[in-house]
Amino acid sequence: MRDLRKLLLLFGCLLWSLGPALGQNADNPFELVPRLDEENRQINTPKSNEETADSLTNPFDLIYDSPRETDFTPYEVDPKVEPIITSDKERFLFFGIGIMVLLFTSGVSLVGNYLNKSFQSFIYDNAFNQYFREQDGRGAAPYFVLYLLFFVNLGFFLLLVLDYYQVSLPIRNYYLQWLIFSAGAASLFLFKHFILILIRLIFPVDAEIRRYIFLMIVFSVVLGAVLVPANLLLAYGPEGSTDYVLWGTIVAIAIIYLLRSIRGLFIANKQLLFHRFHFLLYICTVEIAPVVIVVRLILNQL
User: What's the burial of 143, exposed, middle or buried (CB within 10 Å: 0-12/13-18/19+)?
Assistant: First the structure.
């Protein structure tokens, strides 16, 4: 009996081990053999070229398509649009105006109070006498700072005038031209100061000469302040306004010069009665002749 149980148990284990092999033909969704056979049949079945290419495509392959004509459009330059070209003149105007305004604002920030005094002296004779007494005791160094700025602005104005009338100069460097015009204007005024000092040493007109020299400085400081906006408008003013600005500035210069001459006559009224010949000689050689020569040179160039 015990042997029979062992025999049945052995037979059952044999059947259990042979079960998968005996159930190969059953419809088992997890069976591998039929799926392998089906895949083998699909591989062995001839396919069209397109199907073969699709089946062999690897989704991880990098495919580089040849560029088409529509993928790249070259940049085309519009012939109607002119390229922006900055000339030497435009660069000089930009930096020159910047330098001029920077110098003027720096001078005003340092000695702005003396600029206000200059305008008051320009308008009122009593203010001029008061500030002359102050300057006579303290010195005129702050006024000379504004005086130098006048030469800078005057040289820039002369350069713009000659350039507006297209006067050709042998020197093409605008900065060097500006320096030459400013130095030329300063030389004329220094020559005039030298003549006045010489007259002061020769004739007994010390007080009058000192007052007149201070008058020259004050009126030049006022004129230098007037030339700053005039230069700005001449350089970057609207089209068609250059003639008005230019001639308006010339008229302003003439008025300031005329007022200075009249005030100078009031200073020299006492000496005018006793030294008419010497005063007339001074007016012709120092006041009138330099102006006539400069105007003549400019007109010849135009």
Answer: buried
How distant is the alpha carbon of residue 71 from its chain centre?
41
Structure tokens at 206: 């010390």
143: part of which helix (H) or strand (E)? helix 141-164
Cα–Cα separations (whole angstroms), residue 137 to 93, 127, 134, 141, 212:
41, 16, 5, 12, 16
* Residue 51 CB neighbours (<10 A): 10
Contact 179, 161 (CB under 8 A): no
More confident site: 136 or 16: 136
Per-residue DSSP letter, 16: H
Query: Which tokens belong to 208?
Result: 């009058």
Average pLDDT along the chain: 75
Burial pattern 116-137, b for ≥16 Cβ within 10 A else e, equals ebbeebbeeeebbeebbeebee
Q: Please report the sign of the dihedral spanned by the C-alpha atoms of residue 242, residue 248, residue 254, residue 259.
A: negative
pTM value > 0.70? no
Element of type H or E holding 28? none
* Secondary structure letter of residue 82 according to DSSP: P
Residues 100, 228 contacting (CB under 8 angstroms): yes
Please name the residues in contact with 77: beta carbons below 8 A apart, sequence gap of 6 or more.
none
Per-residue pLDDT band at 154 (split at 50, 70, 90): very high
Phi-psi bin for 150: left (phi > 0), alpha (psi -120 to 50), beta? Answer: alpha
Neighbouring C-beta atoms of residue 229, cutoff 10 Å: 12
Identify the residue whose tokens are 């135009």.
302
DSSP single-letter state for residue 239: T
Of residues 10 and 190, more confidence is placed in 190
Cβ atoms < 10 Å from Cβ of 35: 11
